[in-house]
């Protein structure tokens, strides 16, 4: 390290120490982020061993005084001072590397002490959790530091965090921070978490069981809290002793599927289900008992979740269990496990078999012994349930890709049927576009005419989603009707009567449709696409000035028309609208 650089870093540390010493306690929280940002420029000095700075006593004194100031602020009487100290501790450890990390034991003890302070605001405790988690992570590359710092401090950290989140003063953001910290630390320190596994599992099941809109005992959990709770609950299987992690993971997966079926038994009682299990699943309760009182589940003994009461709570419980199954698919494991896709697909088949719209055409029989109000509420909630199911299907496809080719087509047919029944629901359309995009990316080139005919309703809806209501006023609409556009210019688009105005911002729905269109044009065999559908896709690409879709259309042109023998192409329009783009030059 150059002498000039050392002197500059030392001057920065002296200035930071002076500013911290002369600033009022109430203003420390305001200047701490600025000083923390400056510490990264001093990383070479902070990471230098004391032996290297012995020749320059001023430099070593500057480093020592700065570290001493942080230690003093960690014990400060005001929460503003402690808040600033937490920020500076994290910045110093990250900038100083192993040299600062190896001497951070006292800081770790002080940070755990801050976690135990009942009077500090939730933001201070959340920042302390983040800082401690970061320190623990940085020790992973050094086995001696794991023994000296992480192993002694982690049990106290875990128990303190659990005590804090179970208190009524805990905010959703603090809870979220603790859950994310557990998700990071559990895979690396399962034996330490094993001591508190029962308490952690109890907390997680309470988070998952509690509806997001209401809370019990003064607690209210957000969707983000529940999502992370699913992750941590799945990861807890690694706390199993000896070699029992894989077996525990398998048992938990089967229990989740069984719990979902138990809730389906009670939630779907308003209809006569046509589903027949291919995995040998038996109903959890006799049909006669289902008709008594209202739809409810006293307690979920399978997973240890709280009971639910009412059709709305029942549907939300199934959605939560689908999210939990998604966590099993997405989260990595430390051991090889067997994914029982047959059980999961069997559950999905049951959920997709109950659809809201035009039930008589699909053989959906109504159970007249159940009040009409409950049946109407079920049909109102079904689209949201199917969105959660499609999210699970998408996770399976993205995780296993070509390994699930045999189940890809049945799963796609479930999604298409749900789309046809409930396309008025924005979430269904968004999820369908996203899922179809993933399917086409993997399997699109192998699709035949019948396969394309099956997904045609989704592709048409995607185009209608993107096209403006008044396409005559859209730039490019005049050229689209000329000879260059060919068939695309002659086709008139039938807009959805139920659609509102074209979105002015790129919402999730618009973004999903925007991503699907170029994949339809690039991945599908042009010879198998019906002429009217190809014309609609080309016209949509032109009128919306969708560069990626136009490029895909040019690279995958439609075959020559049988009558005229002329192949249409969007290349002239693409060259006119994007003359300087690399794709056009190529």
From TrEMBL:
One of its GO terms (biological process) is rRNA processing. Residues 13-213 form the Pre-rRNA-processing protein RIX1 N-terminal domain. GO terms for cellular component: nucleus. The keyword Membrane does not apply. Its main location: nucleus. Keywords: Nucleus. It comes from the Eukaryota. It is found in: Nucleus. Belongs to the RIX1/PELP1 family. This is Pre-rRNA-processing protein RIX1. It comes from Hortaea werneckii (Black yeast).
